[in-house]
Amino acid sequence: MLQTLRRFLLGLPFFLCACADDGTCKIASVGDLQVLNSRGSPIVKASVNGHPVAFIVDSGAQFSSIWPNQVDKLGLVSQFRQVRMHGVGGETMGDIVIADKLGLGSATASDVPFIAVGNLFDGHAIDGLPVVGLFGADFLSSYDVIFDLPEHRINIYDIHGCKKQLPEWRGNFSKIKVEHWWRDSTKIVLHLKLNGHPIEAFLDSGAFRTLISRDDALEAGVRKSDLKQDRQGLGFGIDDEKTARFFHRFDSLELGSFRFNHPVLSVAETDNSLLGAEFLRHYQVWIPQRGDWIYAKPASAARTTPASAEPNH
């Protein structure tokens, strides 16, 4: 998304023993973002055309977006083109708009495209800042991103010329195999076990709770009659339409070396299961820009700068 990003480095590049051909491994911090909220999907401060605002950080959204009612308020310019967007609950259409200036962390960008779509959170504010949209995977997938929500931080790194860079975290951490969805390479596919049954789920910081597709729940041994006895609620899809949710207590959920016993998870009619923000609220998770692995450990790691050590499994 940020084709013209100008990076203000937060210090000199690190020089590590896992080096490029010219002998240097360069790691530049694009931003150390403060997470403003303590529950649910992370929200960070930004500016659009000089207006202080806040955005939800949504790794499950293909495109970054602005609520349509904010387009004129923030001075964005319509391109008179639309795109089709897919997500929970189906699909919807959105208008392409351009922001002259975007500020995020220690970086600024010019001529930044957004999709004008969604109204569910329009009118919400945090710390006096209006929540105006989503930062999606089109931005996040351009960098190494470390979600450190227990410490209310998201670190964004621009890494070049490094081989086998790994997080310099104290204690044990897990290296978790992932794939990238064939329809959208920005979506991170995790391999989970639900009641011991293998399923796939997208890593989605924009999902307040982990969401299990009805098909995955049934294949994991849940009966339709079980769901009818569960507590019910409502969720919202990409088109802001309400969708029914069932809150079901499963026997177990496993991700890599992490096991969660008797979790209560949302179940809904959706194409894909999602590992949501409540997982990220209790773990540090490093998502490299390249490769087929992510790294995770329980909260309280002291350092989150990528380094060149081998992981402890």
From TrEMBL:
Q: GO biological process annotations for this chain's record?
A: proteolysis
Identify the PROSITE patterns for this entry: ASP_PROT_RETROV, ASP_PROTEASE, PROKAR_LIPOPROTEIN
Pfam families in the cross-refs? Asp_protease_2 (PF13650)
Q: What molecular functions are annotated in GO for this chain?
A: aspartic-type endopeptidase activity
Q: Which UniProt keywords apply?
A: Aspartyl protease, Hydrolase, Protease
Give the signal peptide, or none.
Answer: none
Q: Which family does it belong to?
A: Belongs to the DDI1 family.
Full protein name: Uncharacterized protein
